[in-house]
């Protein structure tokens, strides 16, 4: 009887193995053949907080402190379950859609997959590798920004890292608009992994948020032993869908087929090359690769990938490699080969958070991209300061982003000496520049066509440097002086700025406690095109001057008066009623 039941169970397993994984079927078969009952392994669930922050794309805080920085995500929660604006949390640099509406924002890339929503990311290392059962993110203010959670097969603490590093998506979703800013514990349902992990990546999109999202901690739950994975169901293919007819597709004009193919994403374009000679010809046409964004595929991109694309990108003009190549995925050899073959026509190159970059890489860019107009090196914080001198050879540059890099003053002055066509410059959080007054003076002399300048957290800028900048760069439309604590309103610097920069559309005076009514009234009198104004933290601005500003600036879209001592919630509510088209921000702490 036992033998008969065993044979019957064995036949059932054979049937199951047709739809299940090979490993699952073999495991169950061995259990039956050894006369044992197949049971689930008993494993204790491990709960752990992040041990270390490994990498991130941006943060609101300073490089020299802990307030509002991504490093706050390491360890146990500091704030949760409280809600509100707290300095002990992790905060990304931007929120809302208005950042993308500024003149300094880059143009979007064509062929970006609709499923790719990520704008920022953070990577966290945990003590022990586990098979994840849950990932919990403690959001303490304006939740809803998280769009993707990923896990990596690499153990960041291992002395012998594997050659093949895999990233798997645990959960992904479109951006959501959460109605309440209150704290919450976000724990989405995640997929099972076939490998243990202690490296988690959280990606966010803050475009739907009304204010900065704040994260307090991340919890990884999992088992040390591998659980039995769910059965894999083979997709069914309807034989009626298969046909050897081309539907006279080859009779269409070449240009029309090109237009149809241009709507495909890059992976679909590559797959289509394998169908027939006609479509291969169209999918490999260099005209399909005038713009190429590889950022959505950062987890799979390698030297081999670039090699396959190299022959198709001879007419390439705009290239986005942001987030790619880390942990050895791209090398100097692979990058150099691609740039030498495809960089001759480049006008835009996005390299945000590319930690594979080195001085030889920037040298190759300067040699192979003579017509480059836009270069983004945001958060490439591992580049040696000497590497930035090569940028000065790109004399046609119009947009340069150096946010959170280690550029030094000598290299910056050299760049400004030769790159006189600059329109947009981002030096936010560049802490190794010693004297921003010298940089401001050089900008005023060499870059008079400058339209936007980001000096976020540049603490050595004084009233003298700001006065020279305002006198020399009168076409400025965007100016970020957030957390520039050395500027004092009593010197008249902000009033002088308002009188000279009458084209201003965006002005950030974040956390400058000295901004007063006279400064606001001067802006109202001279800057009618103003759209975005941030005076967070000032103690000397009253509702009367704000009312004058709102009346004089009909295009105003954003006004941040968070932590302004004389502007309480009642005044904000009153102003919102009078000026409903303006998003007036007032942060709170509970």
UniProtKB/TrEMBL annotation:
Transmembrane segments: none annotated. Residues 246-301 form the F-box domain. CDD domains: F-box_FBXL4. InterPro entries: F-box-like_dom_sf, F-box_dom, Leu-rich_rpt_Cys-con_subtyp, LRR_dom_sf. GO terms for biological process: SCF-dependent proteasomal ubiquitin-dependent protein catabolic process. It comes from the Eukaryota. Keywords: Leucine-rich repeat, Ubl conjugation pathway. The keyword Coiled coil does not apply. This is F-box and leucine-rich repeat protein 4. The gene is fbxl4.
């Amino acid at each position: 009887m036992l033998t008969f039941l065993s044979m019957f169970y064995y036949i059932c397993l054979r049937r199951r193995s047709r739809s299940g994984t090979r490993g699952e079927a073999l495991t169950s078969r061995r259990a039956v053949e050894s006369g044992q009952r197949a049971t689930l392994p008993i494993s204790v669930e491990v709960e752990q907080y992040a041990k270390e922050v490994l990498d991130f794309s941006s943060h609101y805080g300073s490089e020299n402190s802990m307030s509002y920085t991504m490093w706050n995500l390491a360890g146990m929660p500091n704030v949760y379950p409280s809600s509100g604006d707290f300095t002990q949390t992790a905060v990304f640099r931007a929120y809302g859609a208005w950042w993308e509406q500024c003149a300094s924002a880059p143009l979007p890339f064509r062929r970006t997959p609709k499923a790719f929503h990520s704008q920022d990311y953070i990577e966290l290392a945990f003590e022990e590798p586990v098979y994840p059962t849950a990932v919990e993110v403690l959001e303490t203010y304006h939740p809803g920004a998280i769009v993707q959670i990923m896990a990596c097969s690499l153990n960041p603490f291992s002395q012998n890292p594997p050659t093949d590093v895999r990233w798997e998506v645990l959960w992904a979703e479109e951006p959501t608009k959460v109605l309440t800013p209150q704290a919450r514990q976000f724990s989405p349902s995640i997929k099972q992994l076939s490998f243990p992990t202690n490296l988690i990546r959280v990606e966010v999109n803050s475009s739907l948020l009304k204010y900065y999202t704040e994260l307090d901690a991340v919890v990884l739950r999992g088992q040390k032993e591998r659980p039995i994975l769910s059965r894999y169901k083979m997709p069914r293919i309807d034989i009626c869908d298969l046909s050897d007819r081309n539907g006279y597709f080859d009779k269409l004009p070449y240009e029309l087929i090109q237009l149809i193919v241009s709507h495909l994403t890059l992976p679909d374009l590559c797959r289509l090359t394998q169908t027939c000679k006609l479509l291969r010809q169209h999918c490999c046409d260099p005209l399909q690769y005038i713009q190429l964004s590889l950022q959505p595929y950062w987890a799979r991109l390698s030297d081999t990938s670039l090699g396959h694309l190299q022959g198709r990108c001879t007419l390439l003009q705009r290239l986005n490699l942001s987030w790619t190549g880390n942990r050895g995925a791209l090398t100097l050899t692979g990058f150099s080969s691609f740039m030498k073959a495809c960089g001759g026509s480049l006008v835009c190159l996005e390299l945000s958070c590319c930690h594979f970059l080195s001085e030889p890489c920037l040298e190759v860019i300067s040699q192979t991209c003579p017509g480059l107009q836009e270069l983004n090196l945001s958060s490439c914080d591992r580049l040696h300061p000497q590497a930035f001198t090569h940028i000065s050879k790109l004399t046609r540059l119009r947009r340069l982003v150096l946010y959170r890099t280690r550029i030094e003053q000598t290299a910056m002055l050299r760049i400004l000496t030769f790159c006189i066509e600059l329109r947009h410059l981002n030096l936010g959080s560049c802490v190794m520049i010693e004297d921003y007054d010298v940089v401001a003076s050089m900008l005023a002399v060499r870059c008079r066509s400058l339209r936007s300048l980001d000096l976020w957290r540049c603490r050595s800028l004084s009233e003298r440097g700001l006065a020279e900048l305002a006198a020399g760069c009168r076409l400025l439309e965007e100016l970020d002086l957030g957390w520039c604590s050395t500027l004092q309103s009593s010197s008249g610097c902000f009033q002088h700025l308002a009188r000279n920069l009458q084209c201003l559309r965006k002005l950030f005076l974040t956390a400058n406690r000295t901004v007063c009514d006279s400064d606001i009234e001067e802006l109202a009198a001279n800057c009618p095109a103003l759209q975005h104004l941030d005076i967070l933290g000032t103690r000397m601005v009253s509702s009367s001057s704000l009312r004058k500003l709102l009346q004089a600036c009909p295009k105003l879209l954003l006004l941040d008066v968070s932590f302004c001592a004389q502007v309480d919630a009642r005044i904000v509510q009153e102003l919102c009623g009078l000026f409903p088209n303006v998003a007036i921000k007032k942060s709170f702490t509970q």
